[in-house]
């Protein structure tokens, strides 16, 4: 039981100690002392022997990979496991823990409200995203003050009338939880598809609805991800295994009529078996270290399966035109389709090799690869013609290669093989991260010196053309680019002083056009300045890049190492982006220099910075 201390007792104790404090300070200090004296609820210990490995109930589909014989350990808190979330004793303990937390944090309520109000003062609760083009339509989202969810909209051209496609607020009515992702239109813009989770277990129901009436056309339960096929008649989707690992790719033909009732799309979080008898299973990744994802290339030419572990990847492709009903079905009299659609068949671009990673894009009649093959740790560009897969065997329906732990790929340049030819010379100082193919250019993204960069590769060229920006410290990423024949590249740009900015870059002249700058209330970018700095780590040789932002009033005698006067500094490292945003706003607004350091283990300085200098060798050398 906590001891009760009265305000007059605390004031008397302070007076006896010769400390003069105000009555307000006494009350505040008392709140902190009372909180410190509270005792948290503690669950009783009930020791129980728990087995791990090849146990009798066979909780794995691959029992040969389990520890055998199983190991045992004594767990005094195993009784707290309740998969049904219904045990009265456990629920009572959680409620008491929540009450304890609220009481201990009660003295912080005023500060918490002040921080919340400060952050909210920089946000437009009623706002509209800048539209992105898809064919002749412009798609965007709106938020409205007082509503919890976004509203997905579109209009036909700049002056078109707004059409509401999906108001998530209406979808969420009567539900305790609602998370909607991946809203995308069909190729003819008559339907929309999205994934909805109504129970919070991150397993989604795929819903396909009429874009004009929002009528449910088709739905599929328990989906991880999904995308349209070559046309509106088909959908590809992935599903999870029992460990919530995406591992299967399916092909689904859309229902010709609205046969699914509204409730059929709502996931109930149950583990009931879903009937997929009308869908075709295309691929299964059996190695539990690998996660499966799939997408369609921007030119609509290829369906891509990517299976990735922490350090290894493998890609299979299928010509999307072969998986499309109108192109493949033989036509009879009057244009009537004859016969059944053959299932899509995939080919493996490069069998998995331990610690070899690669990504693929479709460009100029070639597969372009961003890969670390041949020991090129920060990734290089390669290519191979589409025809290179003609002689490859079809991929099996299940992954065949199981890599033994600890194996290492050949890091010599001769190991590149597979008909891949280098596109540009490898640059150790440039970390390539992503590529996207368009009709007239390849967009390349990566990092140099710890900061994001963007480049263009034109048809017939053998070197990257950098897209330059005016600020020394910034972040740039690929904006929504949905038109394969675009001559301008949409980018999102922001810095320590510049809010999120939408740019269109002319791929011929490299001219940048500012389309939109996000409005941030109660913020004047002209008051602040950002600089790039380097700090020497305690190993005496590692230079750690940092980017600092400060009020221009703090600028003192300028120098490369000390561009601002001495004062409070908030040094940010490897924490969540949400915390970063909170600290950034508060520090910058209150005369504090904010410093973002690229510490060991962060991807900004390339793969070697993560894996060699940090995680696997000398983690402490760049920290502290």
Mean pLDDT, to the nearest integer, reads 81
Strand content: 25-35%
Number of helices: 8
Largest sheet: 5 strands, antiparallel
Question: Could you tell me how far the N terminus lies from the C terminus, measured between alpha carbons in angstroms?
Answer: 41 Å
Please characterize this protein's 3D structure.
This protein has 624 residues and is mainly beta. The protein contains eight helices and 37 strands. Strands 3, 4, 5, 6 and 7 form a five-stranded antiparallel beta sheet that branches.
Entry keywords:
624 residues; mainly beta; five-stranded antiparallel sheet; four-stranded antiparallel sheet; 37 strands; 34% strand; globular; disordered C terminus
Detail the topology: elements first, then pairings.
Elements: H1 7-16, H2 23-37, E1 48-52, E2 71-75, H3 88-104, H4 109-120, E3 127-128, E4 132-134, E5 137-143, E6 151-156, E7 163-167, H5 168-171, E8 179-185, E9 191-197, E10 204-210, E11 216-223, E12 225-228, E13 234-240, E14 246-253, E15 280-284, E16 291-296, E17 302-308, E18 313-319, H6 325-328, E19 330-331, E20 337-338, E21 347-348, E22 358-363, E23 366-371, E24 380-385, E25 421-422, E26 430-437, E27 441-448, E28 451-458, E29 465-466, E30 474-478, E31 488-495, E32 501-506, E33 512-517, E34 528-536, E35 543-551, E36 569-572, H7 577-589, E37 593-597, H8 607-615
